[in-house]
Amino acid sequence: MNIDTTNTLELRNAMVDRLRESGIITDTRVEDAMRRVPRHLFIPQAHFQRAYTGESVVTHRDEQGVATSSVSEAGIVAVMLQQLDVQPGHRILEIGAGTGYNAALLAEMTGPAGTVTSIDIDAQVAREAAENLAAAGYDTVRVACGDGDLGDVTSAPFDRIIVTAGAWDLPHAWQEQLAPGGVLVVPLRMRGLTRSIALQWEDGRWRSRSMYECGFMPIRGLGGIAERNVQLGGDSGVFIRTDEGREADPEALGTALKHPPTVRWTGAITRNAKHVDLWLSHLDGFCRMIATAPALERGLVRPIYPWGSMAVVTSNSFAYLLQRPSGTDTDGKQLIELGVCAYGPDGDKLAAMVAGRMTAWQHARASLSDLWVEVYPADAANVPDGVLNITKRNTHVVIRSGS
Q1: Are 129 and 143 in contact (CB under 8 A)?
Q2: Contact of 289 with 308, CB cutoff 8 Å
Q3: 328 φ, ψ to 5°?
Q4: Helix (H, G, I), strand (E, B) or coil at 300
């Protein structure tokens, strides 16, 4: 079966070359797998031209138009596979089948002596993933329809478990079905933020091996905690995104958006805003502000990232982070100064409070350069304090710094 053309092979190698040259791909096993798997066979025909740009592609939406399944961006796929540290002969469980692309890469890396099981809660997604895998020659991958929170007892234990949706908590089944010494890689949602974390079970708790910033749509099923996107002022194109049951009043905050903004520059000068989101997540009302392209074009808000910024809301006001150029460092790299923009009747007070928190981050950020995570069972005694402690349904998450 001819699954490639000269053009698709060249495009695929060019995509992998870009990922390697940028430093995203560092493992030759991941590189080899991504060169072999024909990504275009796992991309819907309508988006075929995007197959080797490496972009993510949404493949399914619910009745409200919210994305429920996708092909992940090639860069984060590579990062998570490197975190997983797959070896030939491994037994792999993938939670979240997507289009089957990730499972095909896993099959390449485990080789004929290994096994890959991919499970998805959506029967249509599971069926399409199985069809794509078969068409690409990876019909040894087992695809099942089920709730990923329960794992897959029929194929357990697993040497590696990888989750490809944002998980709010770690269910017992994942620890029970992971073989001793095994690795779990999961995009863990913490106060609305997501980090891809490689975890191992040691001495009665999960201990991280690596952690990377990422973004994934929330997992569905028993462990699902929905995100809420509240648009301010009806059609502003500015949204406040919350989860964990946090609320935001769209009318009050839409009115706040009509107030003259208060801007405070913090003196926090940096090359990037690494971990500033975790630092701000301590604050009551922490959330994310999402800005659409029209809102950005109108200059309604000026967030740090193309998607928006970290934000803090009260009942009638909100503030978000912004940035401005601040020269270069000794290596000639661009520096930025972080600032706060606030709207609403309490905007001045809120801006001052968030700016103060940013100034504290400036002084503390050296200690945040080496963060790691421990996750304890909910009934564990003597859970240590960390930079951030989060209580969840099944677990306590502790983000710590230092060795």
Answers
A1: yes
A2: yes
A3: -130, 160
A4: coil
Residue 2 has pLDDT above 70, yes or no: no
Question: To which H or E segment does residue 350 belong?
Answer: helix 347-364
* Three-class secondary structure of residue 320 per DSSP: strand
Q: Report the catalytic residues.
A: 72
Lowest average pLDDT, out of 37-41, 104-108, 216-220, goes to 216-220
Q: Collapsing DSSP states into helix, strand and coil, what is residue 192?
A: coil
The answer to whether the beta carbons of residues 62 and 224 sit under 8 Å apart is no
Q: What is the pLDDT of residues 83-117, one digit of tens each?
A: 999 999 999 999 999 999 999 999 999 999 999 99
Q: Identify the residue whose tokens are 């980090």.
A: 195
- Structure token digits, residue 147: 């709730």
> What's the CA dihedral at 48, 186, 399, 226 to 10 degrees?
80
- Per-residue tokens: 383: 């859970």
User: Taking every pair of C-alpha atoms in the chain, what is the biggest distance, in angstroms?
Assistant: 66
Distance CA 275, CA 267 (A): 17
Q: Is residue 16 over pLDDT 80?
A: yes
Residue 92 · residue 158 · CB < 8 Å: yes
Helix (H, G, I), strand (E, B) or coil at 101: helix
Q: How far is CA 235 from the centre of its chain?
A: 27
Give CA–CA dist 398/384, Å, rounded: 7
Phi, psi at residue 118, to the nearest 5°?
A: -120, 130
In the three-class reduction of DSSP (H, G, I as helix; E, B as strand; rest coil), residue 193 is classed as strand
Q: How many CB atoms lie within 10 A of CB 94?
A: 29
Alpha helices, DSSP H only, in 150-209?
172-176
Six-digit token pair at 45? 């025909």
CB 258 within 8 A of CB 232: no
**How crowded is residue 206: how many other Cβ atoms within 10 Å of its Cβ?**
24
pLDDT confidence tier of residue 242, bands split at 50, 70 and 90: confident
Residue 8 identity: T
Determine the Cα angle at 100 with ends 199 and 135, to 5°: 150
Query: How many Å apart are CA 215 and CA 342, to the nearest integer?
Result: 25
Burial class (CB in 10 A: 0-12, 13-18, 19+), 397: buried
Residue 147: CB atoms within 10 Å: 18
Phi, psi of 267 (to 5 degrees): 80, 5
